[in-house]
Each structure stands twice: as structure tokens, then as C-alpha cells.
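User: Hey, my collaborator sent me this sequence without any context and asked if I could get a structure. I don't really work with proteins. Can you help?
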Amino acid sequence: MPLPVIKSLTDCSDFSTTVLPYVPQLYDLPQQLLQSYSNPTELYNIYIATNPVISAFALSLFLAPLFVLISEVTKNYSQVDRCWSILPTIYNAHFVLYAHLSGLPTKRLDHLIAFSTVWSLRLTFNYFRKGGYSVGSEDYRWQVLRTKISPTLFFIFNVLFISLAQSVLLFLIATPTYILLVAARFGEEMTTADIIISRVLLGLVVVEFFADQQQWNFQTAKASYLKSAKVPFKFDQEDLDRGFVVTGLWSWSRHPNFLAEQAIWVALYQWGCFSTHVLYNWTGVGAVSYLILFQASTWFTELISAQKYPEYKEYQQRVGKFLPTLTTTLPGDFSEQKAKPKVEKTNTVAGGK
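Assistant: No problem. I've predicted the 3D structure and written it out in C-alpha cell form, which is a compact way to encode the shape of the chain:
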């Protein structure tokens, strides 16, 4: 039986019940697919007969060597980055599709995949307009890292972290959807709490959209200013000369988009916990790993920014990395340093008007 036998909602979060019994399927799956790759009916039967979390995990493992191969051949190490906005929704869609094919109630899961699709569209669009899918485009952080460590060490880093660990991570952050899939066997309908959580997730995507749009507007204005030496409308020369955005959401958080991104996957994890009446479960590995990754990635990003922009260290003192800081009264947008408009004084002449 591809789905576990459960007696209560709390059992849905039990790793020993919902995952461990199906691990042997992982070993048999490659041979089954090789024997049936040309037979659609057999492939469908294999799909239905395989526990969905096992087949999703198998896909993440299958992709890892492809990422390694393509990145080493092209010497471009942003292959996982190009799939970052797509793979979590593919995994979520896989769990939702499996629920539909199994005849389970899917109202809660349908709300989830709607949010996940919007999340993917936003992130994919933002990555595309920044040139992420252009030939030769690569995350500048990999370029910097290659200058700091040996080629052999970077190759090991590519195999173990960039290609393997990140591929598995994109699967792990979607595993709460598997919990919701298993919980659907109890036939519970959407509750008010489910609606609130789904709306919170969409709200966080909206925050990401505004943060990214503000960053995009600033970088576009900065490029125009550097090219023409003319300050674009609604921008200040002081901000453009500084080189990085400090207005809008960025005056409250140095990385408002990162804050919302991390909150999204923590909220999804909590949705799985709430729906199965537990405080925590094994899928928290994905959410916690995501937080750790963003902490490390943000530290490296800011290390580069502080070397590139002279005022970035002061910005770090004024504005919190993710959450607003209460330890300073200085405005995050440096507004107290901006030139005040001059007011011309009018001299009154006796007898004049």
C-alpha cells in the first residue's frame, strides 16, 4: 500500500510510520523505471504504487548528478539557481496530483498549490528579468568564492553542497505538503485556520513582490544615473551615489525579501504541524535547513557588499538584517543626511510691495 495506515491525525507526522516503511521502494525504483520507460501504463502504475515522498526524494537525488555534470561542463554553477523557483512547486504539485489520483479530499491541498504557483511565478519572473536565464549568467557569489578556494575544494563543494544538498533541500521544504496529503485521508474540510494560513502565505509573496520591485526600481535608476549622470524622477542623488537601496521596505530590513522567503517555508511547515495536532515533526528539517542556508548566504552577500560600498557598514548599524532593530534611532533611509531644499528669503523694502 503506497500510503501509510494511520489511526489518528498525529500519526500523519510520525516519520517511522509515514516514511521509513517505504524507504525500500527507493532502491527498487530505478530498475522499475528502466524496465518500463517506454510503457505509459506501466509508468502510471509505478507512480501510483510508489509512496509520493519516496518518488519526490528520488527525483531530487536524480537531479543532483545532472546539476554537477552541466555545471562542470559549462563552468557555470548556477544550475540549481535556475530551478530554485520551480522545483518546490513541482514537488507540491506532485503531492497534490497524487491526492487527486487517490481520490482524497483536496480542498486544503488545492489552496496550497495555488499559493505555490503564485510563489513560483513571482520568483521566476524576478529571476528572469534580472537575466538569470541568460546564457552565461551566474550568481556573482560563486564567482567570488572560486577566487577564495582551490579548484579541487570548489569541485567538492559543488558536488556536496551546490548540486546535492541544495537539490535535496528544495525537496525537503515541500515535505509538509506530504503531511497534509496523508492527513487528507481523514477527510477533514478547510477550517478557518487553514484559510488564514493560506492567506498569510500569499501575503508574504506580496511582501516579496514589493521588496523585489523596490530593489529593481532602484537598480534601474542607478544604471540610468551612471550612464547619463542625470538623477531619475523620484530618486535622490545621495541614494544613487551610495549604491544600494535604503528606502521603502529596505529602510526597515536589510533583506525584506529574504525575511518573507524564510517565513513562507516556516509557515508551510507550521501548517503541516497544525493540521496534524502536533507542535513539531520531521519536516522541520527542511524549514530549519532553509533558515541556516539563508543565514550563511546573507552573511556572505553582506561581506561582499561591505567591501563594495563604503556606507554599507553604517547601514548595517541602522537597519536589522531581517527584523527591524530597536537599538538605534537613526533612520534606515539616511534621511537626516539628505540635503534640505533651500528656502529663499525675501527682503522687504520700505514703501515697496
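In plain terms: The radius of gyration is 25 Å. You can pass these C-alpha cells on to your collaborator as they are.
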